[in-house]
């Protein structure tokens, strides 16, 4: 549809910024009518809102006694009509007829309701418009009324969108409706409202048994304490009764209180350079999220691909992969792209749950979420792996070396996953994508704003700094903090956005886990675990390939009982000590664990998947449609490892 850009520069949409207006543009469908055409009759169901792009219409009501129609209003270019029936859910109260040839933009009721739910400012704008029109019909001039009356009308809940309905939507969010197929669900069924007390009693019981078992095995007191701490934390993470960040903070705190290590070691994660690296990267993500930079980049990439199903699924997947180092937050990327994807599905008239709809959603999940491990700054959990590597190994890892180590695994995983999406969700019909629409959206966004330019400067600085790290040898943490400073000085980030936009909870978790990992290393617990595990793993340690496949399966299974960050902590601390005996660089193990850490057989396993479900309002796909791909995901991980092993052997990562 070649919609006039001025069609969104009207009072009813004045409450929306340029980014939301650009996102709104594809929602409209262009229709044309000749002069004298009746667009809808009085009594018809209200199914659309119309904006006049060119021409004029007459609004009238026919008296029941057959007299001449009563003209209620005449509208011209940039005026809108039909919104009353959408808001009140009652039949049309008047007939609308074209006075001249008209070109109109039509917005369906489904998308209209969604916009009201997402943008309260739009609801207020429409309420004001309604009050003015009702006043005009009753013979009153709304502009002569006292200000407090207009304010009251503006604050009135819009029909069809009461606050109670919003509250109900929040209570029955897609996350809340997902089946709780975990240990926590079973536990809740057994103990109902006494879950916290029951968990504490069960944990105490497990700790007592574990204490006697470890002591009888001859474990040192410090080792026994650390193992009991991590066992208790694993139980609390599994049942998900308390904030995972709070549980993580208990790790170093308990280690100090039980005198298993010193405070300097237990809390050393908060002075680790990777902690400051995550801080800078989180600030960069928060800054980009406040501008239209990501949306602009996504449109530019989509513009380069063919307007068919295969081309667009590939476009979304590659767009996500390209933007991964630009927006270094996997959940942030998925959260930003999901509403855009839902709007695209509506624009293309794709039925919810159709193969094309599911395929587009899964290609977004692949590119914007699951390719995070390809870049060192692709996700915050990548820094968890970096922080848990032996110090000498971590110091040898730069942005470039990480990418080259992960590239063969990443490209094999991307190609196999994309082919699986096309095979499992085929679509042979054409898509209604028009390049003119993308051009129109870019025109609505306009030239780069000052905030976008500052974000682009900060992003470019960090990327160039990371890419040239092998030349200047400046730690990536200080590069990312300079980017943070650029955003702060450039007023893209304020004190308020720093408090709300940065994931401080994850920073607490990261610092706690790295510090606890250092405590395990300093006490010699990791070496002890290595000696204990080697006889048990003898069957998989005869072959490096089999061992790496076993590592992927091990992490995959851990994710059924632990959140991703604790699973990576447990996985790295137990497997890394075995790498020297297996002649493996620990970086390979870390990258494989990142690859295998995102299953979604159970929806609650994958935060990115849940963000996609919520962001698309469950209109693009249902979980049962994607469960097959979730199972195939595990197989693809193993095949990708098989493809990457010869490369790792060639470059000396497997020796």
TrEMBL record:
<dbReference type="InterPro" id="IPR018490">
    <property type="entry name" value="cNMP-bd_dom_sf"/>
</dbReference>
<feature type="transmembrane region" description="Helical">
    <location>
        <begin position="273"/>
        <end position="297"/>
    </location>
</feature>
<protein>
    <submittedName>
        <fullName>Cyclic nucleotide-binding domain-containing protein</fullName>
    </submittedName>
</protein>
<keyword id="KW-0812">Transmembrane</keyword>
<feature type="transmembrane region" description="Helical">
    <location>
        <begin position="373"/>
        <end position="390"/>
    </location>
</feature>
<keyword id="KW-1133">Transmembrane helix</keyword>
<feature type="compositionally biased region" description="Basic and acidic residues">
    <location>
        <begin position="140"/>
        <end position="150"/>
    </location>
</feature>
<dbReference type="InterPro" id="IPR014710">
    <property type="entry name" value="RmlC-like_jellyroll"/>
</dbReference>
<dbReference type="GO" id="GO:0016020">
    <property type="term" value="C:membrane"/>
</dbReference>
<feature type="transmembrane region" description="Helical">
    <location>
        <begin position="197"/>
        <end position="215"/>
    </location>
</feature>
<feature type="region of interest" description="Disordered">
    <location>
        <begin position="139"/>
        <end position="158"/>
    </location>
</feature>
<feature type="transmembrane region" description="Helical">
    <location>
        <begin position="545"/>
        <end position="562"/>
    </location>
</feature>
<feature type="transmembrane region" description="Helical">
    <location>
        <begin position="402"/>
        <end position="425"/>
    </location>
</feature>
<dbReference type="Pfam" id="PF00027">
    <property type="entry name" value="cNMP_binding"/>
</dbReference>
<keyword id="KW-0472">Membrane</keyword>
<feature type="transmembrane region" description="Helical">
    <location>
        <begin position="628"/>
        <end position="648"/>
    </location>
</feature>
<dbReference type="InterPro" id="IPR018488">
    <property type="entry name" value="cNMP-bd_CS"/>
</dbReference>
<dbReference type="InterPro" id="IPR001898">
    <property type="entry name" value="SLC13A/DASS"/>
</dbReference>
<dbReference type="GO" id="GO:0022857">
    <property type="term" value="F:transmembrane transporter activity"/>
</dbReference>
<dbReference type="InterPro" id="IPR000595">
    <property type="entry name" value="cNMP-bd_dom"/>
</dbReference>
<feature type="transmembrane region" description="Helical">
    <location>
        <begin position="477"/>
        <end position="494"/>
    </location>
</feature>
<dbReference type="Pfam" id="PF00939">
    <property type="entry name" value="Na_sulph_symp"/>
</dbReference>
<feature type="domain" description="Cyclic nucleotide-binding">
    <location>
        <begin position="12"/>
        <end position="116"/>
    </location>
</feature>
<feature type="transmembrane region" description="Helical">
    <location>
        <begin position="582"/>
        <end position="602"/>
    </location>
</feature>
<feature type="transmembrane region" description="Helical">
    <location>
        <begin position="309"/>
        <end position="328"/>
    </location>
</feature>
């Amino acid at each position: 549809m070649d919609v006039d850009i001025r069609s969104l520069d009207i009072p009813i949409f004045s409450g929306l910024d340029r980014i939301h207006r650009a996102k709104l543009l594809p929602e409209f469908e262009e229709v044309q009518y000749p002069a004298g055409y009746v667009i809808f009759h009085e009594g018809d169901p209200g199914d659309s809102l119309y904006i006049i792009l060119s021409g004029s219409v007459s609004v009238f009501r026919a008296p029941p006694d057959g007299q001449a129609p009563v003209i209620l209003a005449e509208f011209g270019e940039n005026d809108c009509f039909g919104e009353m029936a959408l808001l009140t859910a009652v039949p049309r109260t008047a007939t609308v007829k074209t006075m001249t040839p008209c070109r109109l933009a039509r917005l369906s009721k489904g998308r209209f309701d969604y916009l009201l739910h997402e943008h309260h400012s739009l609801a207020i704008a429409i309420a004001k418009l309604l009050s003015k029109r009702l006043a005009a019909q009753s013979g009153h001039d709304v502009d002569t009324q006292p200000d407090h009356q207009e304010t009251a009308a503006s604050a009135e809940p819009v029909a069809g969108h009461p606050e109670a309905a919003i509250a109900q939507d929040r209570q029955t969010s897609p996350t809340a409706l997902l089946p709780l197929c975990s240990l926590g669900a079973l536990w809740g069924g057994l103990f109902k409202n006494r879950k916290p007390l029951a968990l504490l009693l069960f944990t105490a019981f497990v700790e007592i048994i574990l204490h006697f078992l470890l002591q009888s095995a001859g474990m040192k007191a410090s080792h026994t304490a650390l193992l009991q701490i991590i066992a208790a934390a694993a139980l609390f993470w599994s049942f998900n009764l308390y904030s995972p960040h709070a549980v993580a903070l208990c790790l170093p705190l308990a280690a100090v209180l039980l005198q298993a290590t010193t405070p300097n070691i237990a809390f050393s994660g908060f002075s680790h350079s990777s902690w400051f690296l995550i801080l800078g990267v989180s600030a960069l993500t928060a800054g980009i999220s406040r501008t239209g930079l990501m949306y602009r980049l996504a449109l530019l990439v989509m513009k380069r691909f063919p307007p068919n199903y295969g081309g667009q699924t590939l476009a979304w997947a590659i767009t996500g992969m390209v933007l991964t180092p630009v927006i270094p937050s996997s959940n942030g990327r998925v959260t930003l792209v999901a509403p855009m994807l839902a709007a695209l599905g509506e624009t293309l008239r794709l039925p919810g749950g159709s193969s094309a709809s599911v395929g587009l959603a899964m290609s977004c999940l692949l590119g914007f979420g699951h390719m995070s491990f390809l870049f060192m700054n692709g996700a915050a959990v990548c820094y968890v792996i970096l922080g848990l590597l032996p110090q000498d190994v971590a110091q040898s890892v730069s942005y470039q070396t990480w990418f080259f180590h992960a590239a063969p695994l990443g490209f094999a995983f991307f190609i196999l996953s994309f082919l699986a999406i096309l095979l499992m969700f085929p679509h042979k019909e054409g898509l209604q994508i028009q390049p003119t629409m993308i051009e129109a959206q870019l025109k609505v966004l306009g030239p780069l704003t000052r905030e976008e330019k500052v974000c682009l400067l900060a992003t470019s600085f960090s990327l160039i700094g990371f890419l040239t790290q092998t030349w200047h040898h400046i730690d990536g943490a200080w590069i990312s903090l300079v980017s943070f400073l650029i955003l702060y000085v450039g007023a893209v980030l304020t004190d308020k956005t720093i408090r709300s936009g940065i994931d401080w909870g994850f920073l607490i978790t990261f610092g706690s886990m790295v510090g606890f990992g250092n405590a395990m290393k300093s006490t010699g617990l990791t070496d002890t675990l290595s000696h204990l595990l080697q006889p048990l793993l003898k069957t998989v340690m005869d072959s490096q390939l089999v061992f790496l496949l076993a590592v992927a399966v091990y992490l995959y299974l851990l994710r059924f009982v632990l959140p991703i960050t604790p699973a990576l902590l447990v996985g790295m601390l137990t497997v890394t000590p075995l790498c020297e005996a297996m002649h493996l660089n620990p970086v390979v193990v870390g990258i494989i664990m990142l690859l295998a850490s995102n299953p979604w057989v159970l929806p609650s396993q994958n935060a990115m998947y849940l963000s996609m479900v919520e962001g698309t309002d469950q209109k693009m796909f249902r979980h049962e449609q994607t469960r097959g791909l979730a199972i195939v995901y595990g197989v693809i991980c193993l095949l990708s490892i098989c493809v990457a092993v010869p490369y790792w052997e060639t470059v000396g990562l497997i020796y």
